[in-house]
Design goal:
Layout (H helix, E strand, L loop, with lengths): L1 H25 L2 H9 L5 H16 L11 H23 L3 H25 L3 H8 L1 H19 L10 H5 L11 H21 L6 H21 L2 H27 L10 H27 L1 H4 L3 H9 L2 H23 L10 H7 L14 H9 L1 H19 L6 H23 L7 H19 L13 H4 L3
Helix pairs in contact: 1-5, 1-6, 1-7, 3-5, 4-5, 4-18, 4-20, 5-20, 7-9, 7-10, 9-10, 9-11, 9-19, 11-19, 15-17, 17-18, 18-20, 19-20
Length: 468
């Protein structure tokens, strides 16, 4: 007992540090830029990853079998493969300065993913500590967006960009563009909803209400970015959480969760009436936003729908497809070991017939990793993603926690794929790797964690069974 009491402060300290780690990474350029100026943007994440892996190794439970080691082993293999591929890509980089900068950002991102998995330890407490960081990150993102709206200025967006000059209501937060910000906020929304779902139902109603209000503010921020991919990802994430929440509520009210239905019908009608009232109020606000002319003129969803029909949007979509075709052509002509760090833009500039209207980033980080760093790094990433898929399609275990972690993993996979497939490049973006680590940590727990996530069996009532 003394040993347990002695370990409790250390465990609480580790959980607090884990929560702060998520907040620091999800803060975007608010923390990244100071680290770059201090020349710690790579050294610090790599050092933290080494310490986290060392700490997790000493706390590895003896009852965890080989199945429980699949995800951390795959993550370490991926990190080692990327490190080797990065060394070769650095030697092949057409621009040594740009190549070194990209490799440093890539290694820092992989270190963030490794740290996330190590801090989770595949345990429920580790996932809970990670989960607590997302509401804090969402609050910070909403605050930054509010500052942007009130001041009419973006934090780090340079002047001259069309979207920044034509509209003062588009927000980008502490990120490079509105698209990245929208998908990052979507991930924060999902993490906040997951955290709210794990809170005790009756003892934390004010906190749950505050978290749901924060989610509503986050959805407004996503709409203000006018990002198609961000809005689509947000709708998907909210749909998944809402579907699971309705299923859980029906099971609880109908008594199908293993216990009897609520004994007091009046207490059941009270929250239902509140829910109906809030739904009616929300529908009224939405109708006013689209029908009242003064509000419709400032409606970001209407702006997004209008811009989708403009010729510039069609040109942008065609440009993305042309960039993918050019990258596939360069990949076909390579030896499969990578064309070099930060090489796509150089290859595009040197190509006499690139087939694109504008020379820019690839806008597909998965293909960018395969092209520039080779098949080994891409295959290691694919193997880890397959483990995540295996965890999600595995027959669910009994218990509420298993369902919650599945929804949590899906809520992180959607913005992770959105950033990887729609952003200009997120190869060196910390939050993309944080989402990768979060999905891997959830898969670790689902595939066979030390605590298995199964609710403990109730002990038999000896008085009822007649056993002494």
């Amino acid at each position: 007992m003394l040993g347990l009491w002695g370990e409790r402060p250390h465990a609480m300290r580790a959980e607090v540090l884990t929560t702060l780690f998520v907040l620091a990474v999800a803060a975007g350029d608010l923390t990244l830029y100071p680290l770059i100026h201090l020349r710690l943007a790579t050294v610090l994440p790599v050092g933290v990853a080494v310490v986290a892996v060392w700490w997790a190794a000493f706390r590895w439970p003896p009852r965890a079998g080989l199945r429980g080691a699949a995800v951390p082993a795959a993550m370490l293999l991926f990190a080692a493969t990327v490190a080797c591929s990065a060394a070769l890509a650095l030697r092949r980089a057409p621009d040594p300065v740009e190549g070194r900068t990209e490799v440093q950002g890539l290694l820092a991102g992989v270190a963030i993913a490794v740290t996330t998995v190590a801090l989770s330890r595949g345990s429920w407490r580790g996932l809970t500590a990670l989960r607590r960081g997302w509401p804090l990150a969402l609050f910070l993102a909403v605050l930054v967006a509010a500052v942007e709206l009130l001041t009419g200025r973006h934090l780090w967006i340079p002047s001259g960009l069309s979207w920044a000059e034509t509209s003062r209501t588009i927000v980008a937060g502490a990120f490079r563009n509105p698209n990245d910000f929208a998908l990052a906020v979507t991930a924060m929304i999902s993490g906040t909803l997951s955290h709210a779902a794990t809170l005790p139902r009756h003892r934390s109603r004010p906190l749950r209400a505050a978290l749901h209000a924060l989610v509503v503010a986050g959805v407004v921020v996503v709409a203000l970015t006018e990002s198609r991919s961000g809005l689509l990802a947000c709708v998907l994430v909210l749909t998944v959480h809402a579907a699971v929440g309705l299923h859980r509520r029906r099971a609880r009210v109908g008594g199908r969760s293993g216990g009897p239905p609520h004994p007091d019908p009046a207490r059941r009608r009270h929250p239902r009436a509140i829910g109906v009232g809030l739904t009616v109020a929300a529908c009224a606000v939405l109708a006013a936003a689209f029908l009242v002319p003064a509000l419709a003129a400032r409606n970001p969803v209407l702006h997004l729908a209008t811009s989708a029909a403009e010729p510039g949007t069609a040109r942008s979509d065609r440009l993305r497809l042309d960039l993918l075709r050019a990258a596939l052509r360069y990949l076909r002509d390579s030896d499969g070991l990578g064309t070099g760090a930060a090489s796509f833009e150089v290859l595009l500039a040197r190509d006499p017939a690139p087939g694109v209207a504008s020379r820019t980033w690839l806008h597909d980080t998965f293909l960018e990793l395969l092209l520039q760093y080779g098949a080994p790094a891409a295959l290691a990433l694919a193997a880890l993603l397959l483990l995540v898929v295996a965890a999600l399609v595995r027959p669910p275990r009994r218990g509420r926690r298993s369902r919650l972690v599945r929804v949590e993993a899906l809520g992180f996979v959607v913005p992770y794929l959105g950033l990887g497939c729609a952003s200009a490049t997120v190869l060196t973006t910390p939050i993309w790797w944080l989402l990768f680590g979060e999905t891997a940590a959830a898969a670790w727990w689902l595939l066979g964690s030390p605590d298995e996530g199964v609710q403990p069996r109730a002990r038999p009532d000896h008085a009822a069974t007649g056993q002494g």
